[in-house]
Amino acid sequence: MTKFYIKDTIFILMLIISVMISCNNKQKILPNAHKIYISDTSLNRKHDTKLTYKIDTLFKSFCENTKFNGVVLVAKEQNIIYENKSGYSNFKNKKLITTKSVFQIASISKQFTAMAIMILNEQQKLNYDDSIQKYIPNFPYKGITIKMLLTHRSGLSNYMYFCDKYTNKETTIYNKDVLKFIIDSIPEPYYPPNYTYDYCNTNYVLLALIVEIISNQSFTNFMQENIFIPLKMNDTYIYIKDIQTRIPNSTTGYHYRWLKALPIYIDGAVGDKGIYTTVEDLYRWDKALYTSKLIEYKNLIKAFEPGSPEKKGKKNYGFGWRLIKCDSTNRLIYHGGWWRGHNSIFVRDTTNKLTIILLSNSRNRQIYSLFKDIYKIINLEAYTNCFETIGNINL
Fold first, then answer.
1. What's the pTM?
2. Does some domain include residue 29?
3. pLDDT digits (tens, 9 = 90+) for 323-370
4. Dihedral of CA 113/114/117/123: which sign?
5. Dihedral of CA 379/345/109/227: which sign?
6. How far is it, in rounded angstroms, from Cα 154 to Cα 272?
7. Is 21 inside any structural domain?
8. In this structure, is residue 8 part of a structural domain?
9. Is 83 helix (H, G, I), strand (E, B) or coil?
10. How many independent structural domains does the chain possess?
11. pLDDT digits over 140-154, tens only?
12. Residue 3 included in any domain
């Protein structure tokens, strides 16, 4: 009896010491960033013997050094080779982030709005060269086409700035209100139509409104029926202030020092922003872009064609996508986004079937350097040609 008791006591003491050591070690890194995370088993996963653990080492080091709050997913040749998360979905109640956490993806929303327009085009309900006035007869600017909106060549001024003059900044405004301000006030455009590329959120607010006019549906319903449901993006939503009360599993957005980012009056306008989704739903979207699930692939690839051929550099813009030509064989199709504390970047190297997705709910522009470091691990030659020869990219 005594011999058994001594062994048992020793075992319990060793167990307590082990737990104490483990707890002390975990304090050195952010919560939730201590293992390679496996979530939805319906998605193909295949850890790469070399790359997976190189990326894992990089990610954990990045979390320790920058206090990164968010998720990462890396896929190669239609398989997820790395997926992980770090930090809090809600800092106040210490709710941890998972790969099912839902993030505001800000301007990455534009590629979905562009797809809605492309669906209507394939249904022969619109042409890219149609004048906006075909669908909005009292639109005050002539010579602006749907394609110019898609490629940011309309020359229109940004509603995020001119709406400040016509509102009290407390009453929520929606897409139709933006249009009303344009018609009533005719803000001075930045450039003549098709004169040059100029990134402008107004373009995609108008595109979302045109989707509603042509389809006779709300933008939200059209996107659900034609994109989210067909692709089984079951955790993807469009947030419109004062219409949706809550988004399931949504992360709270934070500015620096955990300052909560609150909705503002222009959160009623969507198309340029407004989509909330998960890292795995974005990967479902990525996979669909190699197929004809939504529209014929021969029509889909038009989204990835440079919209401003006169641009002499390697940077350009398609239909809701930024484009960069790294070299004769490699190019990046990508977009970044920031809105109300959320940072995001979604990058596709279609030559090598490589996808890198980073979503964060705490403003941290260092995620762009994390993307480049991951890309460098996987494709050093393309990384060198993309970043060391032409510098930074717009995100």
1. 0.88
2. no
3. 998 877 888 999 999 998 999 999 999 998 999 999 999 987 788 889
4. negative
5. positive
6. 15
7. no
8. no
9. strand
10. 1
11. 999 999 999 999 999
12. no
